[in-house]
Specification:
With 281 residues, the protein is an alpha+beta fold. It folds into three domains: 89 residues, Ribosomal Protein S5, domain 2; 46 residues, no CATH class; 127 residues. Helices cover 58% and strands 16% of the residues. Strands 1-2-4-3 form a four-stranded mixed beta sheet. Helix 1 links the parallel strand 3 and strand 4. Helix 4 runs antiparallel to helix 6, helix 4 runs antiparallel to helix 8 and helix 7 packs antiparallel against helix 8. The longest helix has 68 residues. The N and C termini lie close together (7 Å).
Length: 281
């Protein structure tokens, strides 16, 4: 069992730089992946999503990739030869016109930035993919490990609540048996006294045997799912909906204050389980 909440990050040398990968996960009905990558890495977004889809089944994921140090020497400089020659010719003409001594160094009068051209080559992510993949996989493994750890904590707590629900259902059954015996005694006495049929037609309205049978069956299925590998969140959520329906029906039939109190306790435990299962993959 896994939780859908988790965090994983990794940082390693890639190319000539350092790449940082971070993945955050929260609960969601389906697998929703949102990648926030540098523009130079847009081309590998489908591959990153594929890696996540192969490992995770549900959750809203945010993936961040950032080069902490340039992965390649993408910035290059070159001299604007044509502009340099024009500056030189203009400077020579001006000094001659004014009868001045020509400057021996062009940079004394011209800003270097004007004479240099900056070129930024596109990052070759294809050649770096294997290294990038290694970093992303490490982040995914750490995310998955955290999801598993939290999932085990949820499983442990749910098993305790299942035990509590079993105790509550057992108490309801015992109390119902007592009330049923009391009612049968009342009916027997009523028959002897020829009591009207209206006074003995109550069993159809208070019999909770079917609800208890179904609740106990759901508990067995629930316990089995908690020990099952893979994504079980939706199945458990369905079972909890059914258990809520059964306990509501049982509560409406209960004609005993003690049973009503136990029903309230059961609803409280079911609600806590329902909150937790929203975060189970």
């Amino acid at each position: 069992m896994k939780s859908m909440t988790g965090y994983g990050a990794a940082e390693e040398k890639v190319g000539k730089g350092v790449l940082f990968a971070e993945i955050r996960s929260v609960n969601n009905r389906f697998l929703d992946i949102n990648c926030k990558l540098p523009p130079t890495m847009y081309a590998i977004e489908p591959r990153i999503k594929k890696l996540l889809q192969n490992k995770l089944l549900r959750g809203k994921l945010e993936v961040f990739l950032k080069a902490k140090k340039d992965l390649a020497d993408s910035l290059k400089l070159s001299v604007n030869t044509g502009l340099v020659k024009q500056y030189r010719d203009c400077l020579t003409s001006i000094t001659k016109m004014l009868g001045l001594k020509a400057s021996s160094h062009l940079l004394e009068v011209v800003d270097l930035k004007e004479l240099v051209v900056f070129h930024e080559d596109k990052l070759d992510v294809e050649s770096l993919w294997k290294q990038i993949e290694r970093v992303v996989r490490k982040a995914i493994e750490r995310l998955d490990a955290m999801r598993k750890k939290e999932g085990q904590a949820l499983k442990k707590d749910q098993l305790k609540r299942i035990v509590r629900l079993k105790q509550i259902f057992s108490s309801i059954e015992k109390r119902f048996d007592v009330k049923s015996d009391e009612y049968r005694s009342k009916v027997e006495a009523a028959v002897l006294e020829t009591t009207s049929s209206d006074d003995i037609a109550l069993p159809d309205r208070i019999d909770i045997t079917e609800e208890l049978i179904r609740l106990k069956s759901h508990i067995v299925q629930y316990s089995s799912l908690l020990r099952k590998a893979g994504a079980v969140g939706r199945q458990i959520d369905f079972l909890l909906q059914e258990m809520h329906r059964e306990i509501n029906t049982l509560g409406s039939k209960a004609c005993d204050g003690h049973i009503t109190t136990l029903v309230v306790d059961a609803k409280s435990e079911l609600e806590k389980l329902r909150e937790q299962v929203q975060n189970i993959e």
